[in-house]
User: What shape does this take?
Amino acid sequence: MKSSFVLQKGSRAALTVTLDPADIKPHFDRVRARAIASVDLKGFRPGTAPAHLAEAALDQRKIIEGAVEESIRVTLASIIEERNWVALDRPTIEITSTDKPALDAGLTYVAMLSLFPEIKLPDYKKIAKKILAEQRELSVSDVDIEQSLLWLRKSRAPQIAVTRPVAAGDLVEVAIRTSTDGRSLSGGDIPEDRFEFGAGRFVPGFEKNLEGHKAGDEVSFSLVAPADYWQADLRNKTLEFRVRIKNVFELQLSPADDAFATSLGPTLKTLADVQKNIREGLMAEKQSKETERKRVAMITEIANGATIDVPETLIERTLDQMMEEFKATIQGSGVAPEKARQNLRPAATKRVLAHLVIAEMAKLEELEPTKEEVEAESKHHQSETRGLDASQFYDYIYGVLLNKKIFAFLEQQSK
Assistant: This one.
């Protein structure tokens, strides 16, 4: 047996294998023996027919095909093991040379393989230490507290239906139909939506066109989508809106005082208690976001410094997952699936890179989760894993635990 290979971009290998007749003969003999043993002739139990009768009943073409198939399967597995390759999916096989009648001349085949890549990491401990040393001052301003307090008051305010025109701070219930170039947008019909008037949630100019109108009015107008509009294919295009104002509600805000504080819970006695509680909550949120920012920064810099020929197979698998994750958003945006997939490719590549560097660090530092650790961790994620089969469940928990262990390891580098 002779073999040679050519590495291609995307961690693919074109493996050419040439088998001599002597390499094929053992497989041919095994396939033939199995075929003879399975011959079923009238008057004889399977495998007991005389050799000359069983031989005459054989389908020689199927035996040759079976011998070729077994030869390829066994030799390919042997070469993959010998070269310490990890194949990511089933290879495609092309037989380029064979003597079909008897295989006397041997055969040559080409196997296209997608391989797990070789990964060379930069000094990830040094990178982690550098990023963890970065200090950002975290603070909660009085404005932050007042905004959160206002949100609390609005969330608990009685909603009183009014017949006057809409005003800033009102809760407005609308039905919206959006079109462009005379055609309705996919996901552009919203039968019911609620928003705070004046909060600037829509395209600039949207709320301006509703001024002076009240419940029961229907308003039609056109606006140009801004250059940074969230739907890229609609940027700088003229959007036609037809808005029916269904209801207008005035929010009757309670005063921000001690009485309001006591309505929020038994542990809160004064407005100062509420403000202290808000400050602590906002600070915890900022600290959590800062931790996440540093984690993303560490993995990004390590990935940027790594040498990895990212397998196209892994990118495509990740794109499949992301298309499913964002299915509802994509359908609502009106973007063609092919275009959406193309738009997601850079993010998919980054996700694959992150997974690869985390897996490599876990291997180098002997941090791969054990089966026992995965089983213990799974008890904390039952609600997140409903609907997953056993394999998906294990992979999900394994990934959660792997990330937890790697980030705990990296964050130790600051000590």
